[in-house]
Structure formats: structure tokens, C-alpha cells
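Hi C.,

You asked whether I'd gotten around to modeling the 758-residue construct. I have! Everything is below, sequence then structure, no commentary in between.
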Amino acid sequence: MRTLNAALLSILFSATAGAQGRLIPRPCPVPVPVCVEGRCPEVPVRSCIAANAIIRTSSQVRVDMVNRVLRYEVTETFLNTGRALGEADYLFPLPGGSAFEDLKLSINGELVSGETMNATDARRIYEDIVRRQRDPALVEWMGAGLLRARIFPINPGEEKKVVVRFQAIAQREGDALRVDYVRGTEPAAQPGTMPIVRGGAPDDDTEVANTFALTWDGSADYGAPYSPTHRLRVRERGGRRTVTATGDGREVTILLPLRRAATASVSVLTHRQEGEQGFALITITPPSAESRPTPRDLTFVLDVSGSMRGQKMEQAKAAGHALLASLARNDRFRLIDFATDVNSFRDGFVPATPENLRAARRYLDGLRAEGSTNISGALLEALDVRSDGERLPLVVFLTDGEPTVGERDPDAIAALAARHRGDVRLFTVGVSADVNSSLIERLAVDGRGTAHFVRAGEDVERPVALLASRLTNPVLTDVRVRVDGVRLSRVLPAAPLDIFAGQDLVLLARYEGDGEATVRIEGRSAAGRVSWSSQARFSRRTTANAFVPRLWASQRIGWLAAGKRRGVGSAEVDAEIKALGERYGIPTEFSSYLVLEPGMQVDRARRDAQLQAGVGSAADASRPAMAPRPASVAPANEARFEMAKQAAAQRVATSLAEVDSMSAAGGAAGMRQVGTRQFVQQGSVWTDQRYVPTQRTVQVKAFSPLYFELLGKLDGLREALVLGDRVLVAGTKVAIQVGPDGLERMTPQQVLDLMKAW
């Protein structure tokens, strides 16, 4: 086995808010010349960059928490997809307050540790081993909590694994413990390089395999974990509980509520730029148990018109079975089916006894699809609720078409529902693009529920089953949240709200003021009026939690779009939707991503579009243009369906994983979202869309001493530079352009002046 020599630092670092890895391509090692009688031939320095493409194929993070001490183990796998020997520099910033433990490198399939020694000696030994093309790794401290691991050699087609371990203390965030990790991204390929390959072979387009898992003692007094950035899956084994985060988001945040017996857990994440209103994400976790759960009156309304015939009808019946299965003994229920006429399982509500549930299932199974669509008649029957005030009335309304019998005007139907709704929470499910999506959306928004849209041929049962599971066991209804000490505005979703057991209430808002504040939650339970309160801190200025503004913007867009379809649109509303979409990288009806063919540039594409429209000069017309593509215009109802579906998803999205999955925004070619900044790729440079050409621009050489000094002193620069080593980032009065050329050092006064202008 070959010998590994490494210099490993075991000290505390405290500069970054997460951990991430950056892979930097390096030139070929210089061959050792063969000298004869004191005469050494000149050896040219050649570059491997054109023939060497070292990429990361997987990033696996495991975090084990014992007594609030987090032990991170990060396994990064690199692959040389090029045709020549390669060396990689791996930059790895550590979380604030963490302690580096060790780094291991795979040699002949075995993970091997290193030893600590003098830094000068370590570098000399490393360079000597590189010349002999052996297997060293060198870990150096670059300052400001930044480690650099130099790995060599990586043969063509070879994989190398690097395992980094470090510890940190789980920080408290309100009434929850917070666990963070920031994953790096690959630098953009430079001109003349091989394309970056995602996978094990040049033709493989598989995404990097990213995993993140947090494990803790299952008997410890923690509530259900929540993430504003990723979807979570929880499993328990051997007394230990593990949560796995899924999603491609670079920034991972998991909140682990500290369970309490009698009060709610409240955590607040804030993000605020200098001189602007702040953004707040408020997560409210209800108490672990209530002595008296609020009973429900649940009504399922099922469209059985002729258009539901076949697979849709079978899936709708399965959805009804899922709703029935969610009922508890103290609940009551109704089944209403409608086509030309409106029918029901029984007259009025019946208790959810085993006998009644068995009869209801037989009734569901016997339904047949035929006739027209009497939506207004079905709504009147469903909203004819005579609850005793101690029950929560819920209606789930499923249909696949336009109203064809009874009242047909959507505005009149919505007004009819408003007059009869009372305290009913109305949840709607629209199946297929033939449904009146605007009406389905409006009924749910006005009815304090949610709208769900399912394409023809997609599974109807799954969204209804998820809805049924979310609506079990109401803990608090008519909830209102107030904050004493700061002023909230544009709170989403809008009050009043309901909280159900096993779920968190997540609010997104803008805020003014700062400091310690009291969050008050008030509402009704089966035992009467309830009031909870908790202390939270609202920051005056912080660059942490950069995902919060985007989450807020997504819900704001969904809320504005729904308002437009209710007839409250205006030029100002359109302008706000457009501005939010462009600033936060969220596709809307006014903003979308432009994906170009290889070699095309944004300016050329814009010019070609002008020429096709008959705009532009004769000189412009002489330049080559893209071949026009045939237009594909979707039917109007298809477009309305998709817009309503996206707006409905935005209004309930509480994680970046949900936002990205509904819009596919994260992987758009040519554009990237980093925190609250949007970057567009212009040539080989990622350019901040806030950049103004008249700004003073300072050019800084990548990975120079000045580069690393500015990382720790200019807010937002470190995050932006994950895009690569050619990035243009805009500050307030000055911009920083990082590239292969530029300044390598500044005087302390020059750095101070730059910080003030930034």
C-alpha cells in the first residue's frame, strides 16, 4: 500500500454559516527533468485543463447528534472524466464554531488517514510525492475557517473518495434546534475545456447523487423535524431516529423542535439586507398532545357526470375511501354525488361508526358515471351545514368539468358559495384541463382551503389521501398570530388559519423593527379559547437564511395570481408579479427562463428574435440567425389550468424543494439563483443581474490572497463564488469581478474603502 502524507489542522473555525465543497481544476504537474552531467533539459509547463475534467459524482453527508453535539461526516466522490492525469483542489469552508477532526483519502479502495506535521514540511513532502505521481493529499488552512485539500493523482476514469469529519454544536433557533449544511456546486467549464459530465461516463447525464441524513436519539425529547429547504423522510431503528433530506437545494436546514407538554414551539428564521424590510419564516409547532381533539364534520362531494367515466371514476372512488379511512369515532360525515341531479348517501351527517363506514364504502363502490355537471346544486347541498359550533366543518369537492346544469356563470356560483359557506373550510380538486380551473381555485381561496389540480391520467387518489391525512385531528382553529416588538406585513398565508396535529404552521412575512419580540398565537380548541406565546429574535441585519425571501416571493406570487383570477388584477399587480419572478428566479406568466442552444449568447438570441419580428438594422440582418421554430400554442383552458395549478402550489409551498419541483427553476440553463441574487451567464462569466455597467468595478484574481481576504469581509461574495472562478458580483456602489486576472493584494486602507462602498 502506498504511503499517504498529510497535514491536518485540528483547530476551531468560526467564519461561515455552513459547510460546502468547491472543486477547482489544476494544471498538470511539472515532470521531473532527467539531468545528464549537470545539464538539465528545459521542461515545458503544460496545462491539463483542456484534457482533464475532474467532477464530483456524489456528495453524502451524515450527521450524528448526541447531547446536541453534531458530528458531521462528509463523503465526496470525484471522477476524472478526462484523458490525462489530474490533480484537484477541494475548498471546504467549515460551519461557524466547528472543529475539524480529520480527512481520509481512498487509496486502492481503502480509506487512509494522515498525520499532523509542520505546514512547510508537509507542503514540501506533498510536492515531492506529486512529482513521483504517487497518492498524497494535503489539507491546508486558508484562513477564515477555509480548508483546502489538494488531491493527486486521479487517473483517467478513476474515482477518488474524500471523507471529511468535523464537529459542531447544534444551535438553538427559538424553540427548536437548528442543523445546517451548505453544499458546493461545480465551477462552470471554461472555454476550451471538456464539458462537465454528471455521472460516470461522458455520455451519462445523471445528476450528482446528493444525500443528507441526520440521526439522533429517538427517546430524546424532540418533536417532528421540519425543513424549509428540503422534503424530509423520517424512520426509526434501534432506538435511533433518522431524517433524510431529499431535494437538490444547495443549502440544507433542518429544525428539530424541543418538545413541550403544554406550550407551542416557535422558531423564527430571518434574512435582512441593510436598509430594507426583513423577511421572516415563522414555524409554529403545536403541543405534542391535546386532551380533547376538535371533532369534524367532513363532507366529500364527488362528480359522477359522464366525463368521469373509466379510470377517473375508479380513482375518485379510491380517493373517497381514503377520506373515509381518515375519520375518527367522534367525527361525522356525508357523501354527496352529483351529475344532472344531486344525491347523498344519507340525509344529513352520520357518525363515523364502523357500521356507517362499511355502508358508505358500499355506496361509493356502487356509483356510476353518467349525466351532466350540476356544480351549483352540489355546492348548495354541501354547504348546507348545521354544525353545533364545537365541530370543524370540512368539505372536499372533486370535479372534472365545467358547470353544464343549473347555474353556469362562474362568478354567480362563487357568489352563491360565499353566501352559504359560513364556517365551512372548502377544499377543491380539479381533474383534467377541462375543469373550470379559475372557479376551482376561487372556491378554495375564498373558502379558507386549498385547491389541487390533477391532469387527466394522473393519480387522483394520492393528492386526496395526502389532503385527508393533513386534515385529521384539528388542534387549533381560527388561528391568528401577532408579534409584539416588530411589525409584520404581507403575511402569507393570510389569517385566520387552522393547525392540525402532527403538522407545523409556517408563516412567511416581511417585517420592520428588530430585536427581541413576543410571538402570540391565539385560536379556538375543543376546550375553548387558547393562547400561546414564545420569545423570538428578529435580526436588524443578517445574510443568513437566504432561502427565506424566495419562499416568501413564491407564496406572494401565488396569492397575487389567485387575486387576478378573482377579478382584482391591475397593472400594478402584473408589475409586482413580474418583478418578483425576475428577482427571485421564479417562473411566472410574465417571466421565464431562456435556454439557448450550445454556443448561442443572450444578445444574439435577442437580436434574432427582433429580426424575426421585423425589427433591426440591415447590418443586423446580415448576421446568421436561428432557424424559426414552429409555434406550439396550447388551448386556452390548458394554459389556465397550468397557471392555476402553479399558483395553487406556490400558495402552499413551505420548502425550496417544493418551489423548485413545481417550477423546475433550479436547473435552468444560463441562469442561477444564489441566495437572493439572480445570475445570468454571459460568455464564461456569471453576472449579477443587479450589476449596473456604470458601477465602479474592481477585478480580483481568483484564489489570490486578496480573494480569500474579501470572502470574509464582503457580504454575499462567498455565496456567489460557488458559481465558479469567473463571477461578477454587484454591491451598493462597487462591483467585484473575479477571474484569472486582477488584483492579488490591497493595502488595509484600500480594503476598508472597498468595504464601505460595498
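If it helps when you're writing up: DSSP finds 16 helices and 37 strands in the chain.

Thanks,
B.
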